[in-house]
Amino acid sequence: MTTLSTRTTRSQHLLGFVRRHPHVTFLLLFNTVGQAVAFVPVVAQRVYGVQLDVEAFLVLPTLLLLLAPALVITRIARGRDGLRRLLADVFRFRVRAWWYLLPLLAVPALTLLTALPAPPDLTVQQVVLTYGSAFLPALLLQLVTTNWWEETVWTGFFQAPLQERFGVWRAVLLTTPFFALEHVSLVAGGTLGQGLAQLGLILLVSLPTRALLAWVYNRTRSIALVGLVHAASNAAGLSLVPGLFHQPGGGGSALLVLGLVVIVATRGRLGLPRREA
Q1: Domain assignment present for 186
Q2: For residue range 82-116, what is the model confidence (pLDDT) as tens digits?
Q3: Shortest CA distance to 251 belongs to which of 130, 151, 112, 148?
Q4: Which of 7, 79, 154, 217 has the CA that lies 20 to 30 A from 143?
Q5: Average pLDDT over residues 234-251
Q6: Residue 277 and residue 272: Cα distance in Å, rounded?
């Protein structure tokens, strides 16, 4: 009887902690168990000489150790209504049609512009063909396997509630370092100095990226669209630029430029009225 009572008390204490500190609970879980799993490809390559496809390997951890904890914590901390509101934003595709020009045209076009110079024999026909045969399939794959769920967590679960409590810019500044740290396993293959330099670059790009995605969300309340913008960046860097320029290309450059434009154009309000911002 005493054991059962002790377990009940511990369970109540745990649930109480989650309700009071949902963000801290998520970070404690993700930055321990989640990151340990994310480093499996690094350990496999360094210790055993086994080369794993990092992008493919991280799909399952994204669902089980990023998305699932965020949904469970939302249910505990914010109740059924909070979870229902989050899922409504996740599956909100009905926005004004011109918003889809951002991921479908603006992001890939800007990615190509920032990756110039192009090969001298590149033709418009090649661009259109590669866009349809490489970029669009990669965009769909990135969306449904990674970036939709990633932004469910970082925009819907993490950043949006912080924005309601602290304002848009504090939410961006609080989210950015943890969003950048999510990618630490992707830069852990070289020396410590190289890894720190790459992580610093990710952090630099992440700030205007989080600002841009906050603007998209504040204007549309669509996490689906936010995920599509994020996926367009990755798809352009992984498929469009290599397919046309025959060299690696960073899709993050487009989000960096667009984020800076949005910050200046909205005077830092990022889609909110002046008082709320």
Answers
A1: yes
A2: 999 999 999 999 999 999 999 999 999 999 999 88
A3: 112
A4: 79
A5: 88
A6: 6
Phi-psi group of 71: left, alpha or beta (phi > 0 → left; psi -120 to 50 → alpha; rest → beta): alpha
Please state the domain count of the chain: 1
**Mind spelling out the 3-state secondary structure of the chain?**
CHHHHHHHHHHHHHHHHHHHCHHHHHHHHHHHHHHHHHCHHHHHHHHHCCCCCHHHHCHHHHHHHHHHHHHHHHHHHHHHHHHHHHHHHHCCCCCCHHHHHHHHHHHHHHHHHHCCCCCCCCCHHHHHHHHHHHHHHHHHHHHHHHHHHHHHHHHHHHHHHHHHHHCHHHHHHHHHHHHHHCCHHHHCCCCHHHHHHHHHHHHHHHHHHHHHHHHHHHHHCCHHHHHHHHHHHHHHHHHHHHHHHCCCCCCHHHHHHHHHHHHHHCCCCCCCCCCCC
Q: Which two tokens stand for residue 170?
A: 């504090």
Within-domain flag for 220:
yes
CA torsion 21→23→26→31, rounded to 10°? -120
Tokens of 119: 């090969």
CA dihedral 8, 10, 15, 17 (to 10 degrees): 160
Site of tokens 């192009």: 118
Residue found by looking up tokens 């960046």 in the block:
233
Contact, 92 vs 224, CB < 8 A?
yes
Q: Which amino acid is at 75?
A: R
Radius of gyration for the alpha carbons in the chain, expressed in angstroms and rounded? 20
Question: Is 275 part of any domain?
Answer: no
Domain residues for the domain of 128 are 2-265
pLDDT per residue over 137-156, tens digit each? 999 999 999 999 999 999 99
Residue at 192 is within a domain: yes
Model pTM score? 0.92
